[in-house]
Amino acid sequence: MNTNSSNTMALAPSTSNKRETVCIFGTGDFGRALGHRMIQSGYPVVYGSRSTQISNLIPKDAEVLGHAEAAQKAAIIIVAIPRQHYNFLTPLAEVLRGKVLVDISNNLKLNQYPESNAEYLAQLLPGSKVVKAFNTVSAWALQSGTLDASRQVFVCADDVEAKQMVMDIVRALGLTPLDKGSLLAAQEIENYPLQLFPMWKFPIILSFGLAIFFFFYCLALDVIHTYIYENNNFSFFIAFTIPNRVFPVMALILLALVYLPGIFAAIIQLYRGTKYRRFPDWLDKWMLCRKQLGLIALAFAFLHVVFTLASPLRSFVSWRTSNRIVSQALNNQTQPLDHTNAWLSDSYLALGILGFFFFVLLGITSLPSVSNNVNWREFRFVQSKLGYLTLILCTAHTMVYGGKWFLNPSAYKWYLPNIYMLSLVVPCAVLVVKFVLILPCVDKPLTQIRQGWERNPKYSE
Amino acid sequence: MNTNSSNTMALAPSTSNKRETVCIFGTGDFGRALGHRMIQSGYPVVYGSRSTQISNLIPKDAEVLGHAEAAQKAAIIIVAIPRQHYNFLTPLAEVLRGKVLVDISNNLKLNQYPESNAEYLAQLLPGSKVVKAFNTVSAWALQSGTLDASRQVFVCADDVEAKQMVMDIVRALGLTPLDKGSLLAAQEIENYPLQLFPMWKFPIILSFGLAIFFFFYCLALDVIHTYIYENNNFSFFIAFTIPNRVFPVMALILLALVYLPGIFAAIIQLYRGTKYRRFPDWLDKWMLCRKQLGLIALAFAFLHVVFTLASPLRSFVSWRTSNRIVSQALNNQTQPLDHTNAWLSDSYLALGILGFFFFVLLGITSLPSVSNNVNWREFRFVQSKLGYLTLILCTAHTMVYGGKWFLNPSAYKWYLPNIYMLSLVVPCAVLVVKFVLILPCVDKPLTQIRQGWERNPKYSE
Amino acid sequence: MNTNSSNTMALAPSTSNKRETVCIFGTGDFGRALGHRMIQSGYPVVYGSRSTQISNLIPKDAEVLGHAEAAQKAAIIIVAIPRQHYNFLTPLAEVLRGKVLVDISNNLKLNQYPESNAEYLAQLLPGSKVVKAFNTVSAWALQSGTLDASRQVFVCADDVEAKQMVMDIVRALGLTPLDKGSLLAAQEIENYPLQLFPMWKFPIILSFGLAIFFFFYCLALDVIHTYIYENNNFSFFIAFTIPNRVFPVMALILLALVYLPGIFAAIIQLYRGTKYRRFPDWLDKWMLCRKQLGLIALAFAFLHVVFTLASPLRSFVSWRTSNRIVSQALNNQTQPLDHTNAWLSDSYLALGILGFFFFVLLGITSLPSVSNNVNWREFRFVQSKLGYLTLILCTAHTMVYGGKWFLNPSAYKWYLPNIYMLSLVVPCAVLVVKFVLILPCVDKPLTQIRQGWERNPKYSE
Known about the structure:
By secondary structure, chain A is α/β, with parallel strands linked by helices. Chain A is built from 17 helices and eight strands. Chain A has helices spanning 29-40, 67-72, 93-96, 117-124, 139-144, 160-172, 186-191, 201-230, 241-272, 281-288, 290-310, 315-330, 339-365, 368-371, 376-402, 419-437, 440-450; strands spanning 22-25, 45-48, 63-65, 76-79, 100-103, 129-132, 152-157, 176-179. In chain A, helix 13 packs antiparallel against helix 15 (376-402).
């Protein structure tokens, strides 16, 4: 009588310890797939259906009964029918009283109904214990067993016991339950599978907008200006040259935007003298999408690297090289090596490659399986220290590349700076302010504030 | 008496709640490693051995007894002895009655015996409850603690309780149990660690065969034909040029083969008017190895990219460039820029790089840890939408690259087309049929069928 | 009375099955974040604090009481106060008797105190059951819910029941508990979050030292020697040429060092005639950091590849090419193709690219999420067979690249070999010895030894 822990079940022959029967309402794709998986895991399954004479797709070992008879056989009923038919359940209210109803439904649109399907079900059947679960798993994934997409099952319910029972089933099916709290969370859980990269929305819109702007900026300066004033048609720059000017600019700016909110946060904390007040909303949102910004920056950097490495293959470049060498040969001259140029060209290439290398390292450590295997201090070391090193290398790469043209008036077509000059504004600002922030006289109060010290403690009440 | 849940164990001093003693038969590598780990996790361990005077490699805190005495001390006995010695256990049948026997054995070959080791053990000792587990974990992994390879432990048994007990132990050791159902699954579980990438077999054989074919096809056209008709010895093309012609062709064809079965499936469903009939077997198998086909295609694309980027470093290319420029110089001429050529060359490079970029993106999202963190809709968006975008970009890359030669008779040596023309057949067919399938008049019935609608419902009975 | 298992909780209305109240001592960042998360997961939370009139940052649904009153309400008390204040708890010893105290503290330095904080707490309050847990999770991670860094919670305790209770809470919070055994492990658990890539320390120091050595070696031969004897200033080689000579040398040597300890181990086992004696300590440590060595080698290989691919973009290379072609043109000559050179150049490029390809494959399979999805045999196949293939390809790449200079006296400036010759020593030694080890006459006894056979069994006692 006192062997209560789950590790020390009595081995005496007891039939009560067998897995409990589960009832599934509805014989659609998902109901069948779930039933199949449950039978595999040792649960007796009984289907509740309008017609008990159903297709041969139902798992062999399952029983098929009418709704009421099926419900009576089990303590847990999986409601695998669409929300529109939930009202068919109201006549069964008495049978379902005290039972656990698992709502697995999904909608077609975000916030399609005023309340979540699970809450609607709970209103219809106030005597039952409604649990929201399984809606993020697809029938195909259950059936094929190759759970390529998420293994996570979000579970929420008002009744803790009922939730625990469902989470145990989830675990027995080889999936990972994640407790999301009370049934209020059902709305969020139902919206989850309808979302399409919600965290990526703002970063993608931002980078798309910026890229379009820089593309037309370059088009104006490199193609249209050249066409008007030099009468050269370089329209084919649209395919390769201009993208490869926009990519590095985007990569550098987006990388700087990853570290800018941290700078703002530090300044705000220093100004307020406390860390116990919320940041403005825009800063909070910005900080939450830093990873996405960084990965988009990495994508642009990758494109820049491959485009640059491929440039010797361009017929334009090989034409330009031939012409340069032929005219040298026709002038009977070989040129001496320009040492300054050799230094500059080798340096900016080396800086750029090293910057890209650390950028890729940052990308790899942001893979979920890698970041799950490092401790907190290591994660912060990589994302902060290596991140700033990457930013410094990439900024230096851009500066060495374009340095000689800063003071050259011919670089300013239509009095506009070249885009690599524009791209340096944000990263340089970030690096300068960061440098000020790590000076001991600024760093010390900031560290104290982050450890909980407050200049005017009244704020925190 | 009513605090039964695993969260609310009584804190009153009870000795019964301690972890139960586990007995291990056999003191080989795996038995010792498992015992060590169990002691670390708080289980008292007793070894059953022929000689109780055993080496100092046995964990210090473990007891060593004769088989019968050891078995009497525990409810769970881990059978860490080879299958050949299982019959030594029959005299112990009485002692082992009602106990849980964990079969951890592995064979040396696939399907070495008619029945699985676990089922054989269950036949020998019908009074015991046999559970298959732990056979996929290596002694080395248990000992070193660095579980680089799988943490998953497949468990199966006919007795649900016994299975639950073993799964609890698995969890306590920091491993992840995966319930595979009844003891019938033991054969599969025993075969699992003997498999060498079973899902990769067909894709690798297919791509190997195709690659060999295309290699000799190229060899004939580029080396042998040139040698016979132009008397040029280009045998060194074998090392670089021909591989770099075969790689992109393989990448494009394999990528198209990833999307071809989906096309077939749609046509079959449209033709049958229902989704409730099984696809032909070959189609099912093909669909299951799409991920592997895609990853092999990515490998070929990667090789193509690096080979292409490295081509300016070849001594043949630098010789060809020098000769071209020198003869230009000797003719005292500089050439004007060929704008069409510049457009074509820049476009096919840009298309190819973008195609490769999205291909890499597809590869990254197929990493298990990434695909576990996206929901089903996001996974399908990436694998379907981005996949087709990749296919379109790569097909366009090939078309722009070779477009000008299609109508050029000199491109048809021995009346055979160049391999990039062959490579376009499958992807173009896939893209054309896909285009037809997304026309509203075709897409609408297909979507209905996929939502469960049937043209002739009698089929599904 | 007999529905004890966690799967089959009674559904009868019982209030006793609700989640148990948890008490948290301390209202700092971590205490608040943990309380918040627990409330989300359905635990009633009560805070113990000196002043019950506390800031509005405390979760709304939590109660705040004095320490003694709060402790009385719960069976589990989370001690979220710094070690320096632990002695404040001694007056509460009577209230805390029999309760589970969860020590979540971290230190600022490795081994800051003679005993771990958890053991110190257990000494102060011998009547309580101390469990070490949660110290590896950050308050920020708990709050934001985005557990980018580790989800693993290391748990240790002397009392098995208390540990089980805490592990159940950990699981309910959506984290993964990992049982580390008795409270003796607390020291290790407390040191864990203070570590910064401990396994990487030796490989990084080694490769840093080697890289510095090779850098100065190259500097002497390529820059200083050229400056002294040929009066050429090639100082700009420091930025690009010399790094790109050091990178491949480092990659090759480090890759060989991954396979060297396995060779040593085999020789030692053959010599001793048994596998049951410990390897020397240095060999054990070396074998444990093979993965890190391999990944650093991959980083160097990646840098070498990108540097090499970028070299046509260098202004030095384009100057050298121009001058070569111009002088050819001025001499009115076009050169015939050197077939041997074409073969050599194409072969070493192809070998290098294939080597890099397999190297990247090795790197990808060492990602935790990938290696978790392969069985032990597949993991060993990739890491051993593909690893040796990579080593063979990279060694052949270096040999073909530099082969022609081995017998050329001008390659030995100051009678010193070029660094690629040095780089071949270790990989060639590894490959030769490995070749000997797989000869049947050597492989057979080695396999026997690895299966447990001993030449002189007395050793093992």
